[in-house]
Amino acid sequence: MPSIFLSFRKPDSRWMRERVYRALSDRIGADEIFKSGPSIPPGADFAEILRRQAAECELMCVLIGPGWLDARGEDGVRLLDRNHDWVRLEIETALRAGNRVVPVLLGDATMLPAASALPAEIAELARLQFLRVPETHLPDGLAHLGDAVIALLSGVDPAGEPGHGSAPSPEADQPVTMTAHVSGGGSSYQAARDQTIRLA
After folding, report:
1. Is 92 part of any domain?
2. DSSP classification of residue 179
3. Reduced to 3 states, what is the DSSP secondary structure of residue 197?
4. Exposed/middle/buried for 182, CB within 10 Å: 0-12, 13-18, 19+?
5. Are 58 and 106 contained in the same domain?
6. Same structural domain for residues 152 and 178?
7. Are residues 38 and 78 in the same domain?
8. What angle do CA 117, 122, 126 make, to 5 degrees?
9. Are residues 17 and 84 in the same domain?
10. Would residue 147 count as lying in a domain?
11. Angle, helices 138-154/14-28, rounded to nearest 10 degrees
């Protein structure tokens, strides 16, 4: 049984998604990663396999690109609002099973969706600490993602020293707040995993 389930929206950030998959496969091994398509044998009941893998995975990485939240079908209905949407069902299944679920934001500007923008069954996703894979520093971002995933699978706090069981220093736990002055004003926005930049 693969340890990691990659949940994703097919039309969303395909090239970055493939880079994430290859990077994690190189670090952890392809057999440890479930990715719909290559991980489902021809002729298999894909619905049963998806549900079982989502329920039994040790870690689900929800890959969120700029088009993930508002992707719509031909009828104009948002995919996440459909009860049978597979992305929604995967996340709901993993959360209900008590598995660790980590949002992985693809790109420099992708935001973690607000709880109010998500169906109630997966609104918890908005409260979960995310990881980011920035496009502008992709190799470093992929390396950081691999380190974080390995630490989570081994039960080590990614902020601490692997293998030593030591708690991170109080300073390491504190979020970083920076202030940027821009003409015309602005508002707060997410900058990184542990940063908030306030535009003043």
Report:
1. yes
2. E
3. strand
4. exposed
5. yes
6. no
7. yes
8. 60
9. yes
10. yes
11. 50
Residue type, 40: I
Q: What is the model's pLDDT at position 154?
A: 77
Enumerate residues 6+ apart whose C-beta is below 8 A from 54. 5, 7, 60, 89, 90, 91, 93, 94, 97, 99
In a shared domain, residues 186 and 113: no
pLDDT tens, the chain, 200 aa long:
789 999 999 888 889 999 999 999 999 999 999 998 767 777 788 889 999 999 999 999 999 999 999 999 999 999 999 999 999 999 999 999 999 999 999 999 999 999 999 999 999 999 999 999 999 999 999 999 999 999 999 765 544 433 333 333 344 444 443 434 443 444 333 444 444 444 44
pTM over 0.90: no
Residue 74 counted as domain residue? yes
In-domain check, residue 163: no
The C-alpha atoms of residue 66 and residue 111 are separated, in whole angstroms, by 8
> What is the chain's length?
200
CA distance 4 to 145: 13
In a shared domain, residues 150 and 176 = no
Range of the domain at 176: 168-200
Q: What is the pLDDT of residue 156?
A: 54
Instruction: Give the span between the Cα atoms of 184 and 200, in whole angstroms.
Output: 9
The pair of three-digit structure tokens given for residue 1, joined into one six-digit string:
């049984």
The C-alpha angle 105, 26, 89, rounded to 5 degrees, equals 45
- Of 132, 8, 131, nearest to 68 by C-alpha is 8
The residue assigned the tokens 């396999």 is: 49
Q: Number of structural domains, the chain?
A: 2
Residue in the block written with tokens 């974080």: 148
